[in-house]
Amino acid sequence: MSSNYTLHNLDCTEFLATLGDNEIDVVVTDPPYGINENNKKVLSRSNLAVAIDYGDFAWDKKRIDTALIREIQRVSKEQVIWGGNFYTDCLPPSSSWAVWDKVNGANDFADCELAWTSHKKAVRKFTYMWNGMIKQKPEKRFHPTQKPLDLMVWVLETYTKPNDLILDPFMGSGTTGVACLMTGRRFIGCEIEPNYFKIAQDRIELESRRPSLFEVEVEQLPLVEQVEYYVGTNTA
């Protein structure tokens, strides 16, 4: 636990029930899609490199309940939900979808992934290669549906503000939390699976020891503006 982040190893429904309306600035999350993603499918897809064996998992057999979507909307002012295209029956129309072009090449992975957002913006696209072991930048994968760190930094810089309180109720291996610390956002994460919780905890704790990208930018400002920022942060 830190002043910048709090992590919970539990079912997110328990934690959400403790929150008031609009207590969170933005929920940024990647819930199960209900498409039965599993280790056998992951291992069968790779044409360019050997796929990672994540062991058996069954958490993607069904979508999350509509009631949980409603609860996420209740506790937050804005939302960014990856896989929102699988929840269009319970999410309102949006003009502000986020599109991640994965530059996948010839395989049966999707060319793009979509995130529904509640923001009043135009559609935005981020292009970043992420094809099994073939990646735009070297980055260790811990989770079968893990998002690239650069993608999550882009999401935060596009849809949130510095010092916003971000919640990821399906934290997985903690990439959203790492990106939050890098960009000067506060973070709350929930993960029900103990092994992934420990991975997320270790990754986020390691990142917390480094200066954030935003802190580096602030330190380059004139002294008066630095004081104004830090005073504002401490009274938020």
In words, what does this structure look like?
This protein is an alpha/beta fold and about 240 residues long. The protein has a single domain (about 5-235), classed as Vaccinia Virus protein VP39 (Rossmann fold, 3-Layer(aba) Sandwich). Helix content is about 30%, strand content about 20%. The chain has eight helices and ten strands. It has an eight-stranded mixed β-sheet. A two-stranded antiparallel ribbon has the order 7-8. It starts with a strand and ends with a helix.
The proportion of residues in beta strands is: 15-25%
Number of helix segments?
Answer: 8
If classified by CATH, what would the architecture be?
3-Layer(aba) Sandwich
Biggest pleated-sheet summary: 8 strands, mixed
Blueprint (SSEs and pairs):
Layout: E1 5-8, H1 12-16, E2 24-29, H2 39-45, H3 66-75, E3 76-82, E4 98-101, E5 112-117, E6 124-127, E7 130-131, E8 134-135, H4 149-159, E9 165-168, H5 175-182, E10 186-190, H6 194-208, H7 213-219, H8 223-234
Parallel strand pairs: 1-10, 2-3, 2-9, 4-6, 9-10
Antiparallel strand pairs: 3-5, 4-5, 7-8
Helix pairs in contact: 4-5, 5-6
Features:
236 residues; alpha/beta; Rossmann fold; eight-stranded mixed sheet; two-stranded antiparallel ribbon; 8 helices; 10 strands; globular
In short:
With 236 residues, the protein is α/β, with parallel strands linked by helices. The chain is 32% helix and 19% strand.
